[in-house]
Every structure is written in C-alpha cells, then in structure tokens.
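Hi Y.,

Following your request, here is the sequence exactly as I used it, all 182 residues.
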Amino acid sequence: MPKYVAFLRAINVGGHLVKMDRLRTLFEDLGFTTVETFIASGNVIFDSRSTNAGSLEKKIEKHLLKALGYEVATFIRSIAEVEKIASSEPFSAAELKQKGNTLYVGFLSQAPSEESRRELIKCGNENNDFAITDREVFWLCRAKFSETDFSGARLEKILKLKTTLRNANTPQRISAKYSKVR
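Below is the corresponding structure, written out as tokens. Let me know if you'd prefer a different format.
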C-alpha cells in the first residue's frame, strides 16, 4: 500500500492549534492507516490504497475544513518524492553550510508557470536565492527569516499558487525515517 506525506498549511500557526493526536484521528477517520505525525507543524505520514495524490489532497482538505472550521491547504508527496526532495542539491554545499544560511522548501500543488518562475528568480538578491523543480521551490535564505524581505505570502503572490514552507531538514528527516519502509 502506498505511503504518503501530507504537508499541511495552517497547522499550529496563526492561532490554529491542533493537537497531533487529534490530527492523527482526523486522518484515520478518512480510512487512512499507519497514520503518524512528524513534528507539530502539520506533517502527516499515512498509508492509502489510493494512487491519486490530487484526489487525496481534495479529500483531506474537505474533511479538515469541516472538522477544524478553516481551510487547510494540503500538499501530498509519496515517500519516493520526499526522498528526491531530501537529496536535492539546489545550491552548493558551501552555501548551505555557511553560518546564518537556511534552506526552505515550498511545497506546491502544481508546477508554476514559466512566467512565474522567471519572476521568482528575479527576486534573488544578497539575502535570498531560489531554485524551482516541478512542484517545489527551494529558498536559500541568507538572513534571519524575520530580517529577509521575502515571505511565504510573497512567494504565493509571485507564483500564483498556494504553498507551505518547511525547513529543508523536515523532508530530510522524514526521508531518513521512512524511506526504508516503502
């Protein structure tokens, strides 16, 4: 049975607090099995017979809206996709290891348009650099998150797509824990 990771937006931020045991139960209510949460920022690992990630996203979003009372954008990736994200090297090792630099991954529901890609790349500067794959954006932040002139909201506006951001160590840790489970 396929194993997936749901990267949820608006979980335990902005006053939307959801205990992880409740989140697991909400996923189990949908018939998913082997449900686990990974850190309290809206990462849920689960098994499903479905092989259609888009339909899973819609099913989860509808259920969470009803249960929580607010929209929770959902971005599904298979464990193989998480492994690929975790092993991506969008920037040099020296850049990534430089003190103060942090790599973020923005999960998207679909690939951004070429126009949006070009607009985002133009936003690169001394504090920010970007690399775009199919449905992910890698953001190298060379300043404290609070000190950069960039944000998740600006990323969404430029790409014209919803996204949720994670520190790159999140997919790396998920991959390390679950890649052998497939």
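The radius of gyration is 16 Å.

Thanks again,
Q.
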